[in-house]
C-alpha cells in the first residue's frame, strides 16, 4: 500500500531506496523467471503433477477453512459488516471458495490479488473478487511504489489506479529476495523437483507401454552367418513388434520368432532399480518446498513424525497458520482503509480441531496462573479487554 499524504501535514515519509526500484511512468515490471513463468509452472506442477496438486489443495483448503475473528482494540465482534462481506464476498463465491482461490494463487505464483468493487456510497466494498495473478502486472511509479495495476485478458486491459485512497487492489505477496514487486512461490522453488518427478512418471508410463519390463534384444543370425536383415524384413519385424507385443493389452503374449531370430531378454540394471527411489525423493522435495509433511500426502519412506496426528499438528503450526495469519492481517488492514476504522482479522486458534489439545493446555496454564489478573489473562489469550472494566 503506497503512503498517502495526510492533509495538513508538512511532510510525509517515503523510502529513500524505493525510487531506485521505480520505472518510468507507464512502464510495466514483470518477474523474470525464464521458462519458469506462472502458466508453465501451473500446468506442469499443479495440473500435471499429483504431488504439487495435492500439496496446493491441502494447504489452500485447510487455510480457507480456518475460522477468522474480527476485533478492534475494545472488543471482539460476533456481528460486523466485514464478517458479512467475507461470508458472501460476491454472487458467485462464498467465503471458502474465495479464500481457497486466494491461497491457491499465492501458492502457485507467490502473489494474490483481491479486487474491491465499490458501491454507490463510501465505505466497505459491496463485493470482493480474487484476480488471476498471471494476468496482473504491477506498474511502479518513480518512487518505487505501485501507482497502478494492469489486468490483461486477451487483447484487453483494465487499469486499477493506486494513487488515491482507498486502494482498489489488495496485493498479498510472498517474500522474494530478488524482486521488488512480485513474490516467490513454493512452486518456483520446487520447479526442478517437479521436472524430475514428471520425467519419472513419463518413464514409468513408457515402461508400461512396453509390457512393463525393460526391452530385450532380437538377435538375427542369417544362414550365411551375416546378421543383417533386408529393409523389407526389418520393416515387417518392426511392424509386428509394435502391433502384437507393445502396450498393456499385449502384456504376456508369447512371441513367435522365425528365420534365425532369437530373443535375448535384458534384466533391470542398477540404475533402473534406483529410478523409483529417485521419483520418491523428488516427491519429498516438492512436499518439503510447500511445507507439507510427506506423510500427509502418502509418500512412503518418511519417518520425521511419530504419527499422523503429530504430522498434522506440525502442518497447521508451520504452514497453514502462518499463511492464514499473514493473509488475514493484510485483508484486515486493507478493509480498514475502506471502512474508515481500524479492525484486526486473525485466525481463531480455539476453533481448529488439529490444535485442540495444545489450546486446552494453553488455556489451563493461563487460567492457573494466580499471579495474573483477569485482564492480563485475556491479553495472554489474545482476547480484547472486557468493555467497562
Automatic annotation (TrEMBL):
Name of the featured protein: Portal protein
Lineage of source species: Bacteria, Pseudomonadati, Pseudomonadota, Alphaproteobacteria, Rhodobacterales
